[in-house]
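S1.2 Input.
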Amino acid sequence: MAARITTTKVTAERILPSLIKNGYSARKLDPRSPTFTRDFKRAAKAFTLKATRSPETALAVLVEAGIYTRSGKLTKNYR
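S1.3 Output.
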């Protein structure tokens, strides 16, 4: 369960700046809005495509999230 929360948090931290750049105000984000949901899904899909483009970029994303070490081993919290 903790892994899912951490991954979601990291993804949201990476996706929200792109939503804000596309006209959303950080103070007016309403996750229940259909427009926000649509744009968030679109941004999440774009992030996923970028992050899984190659094994190297996937590992870089997982290292940045604190799931893997640079050597490719799971960090202590995920063993």
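S1.4 Remarks. The mean pLDDT is 76.
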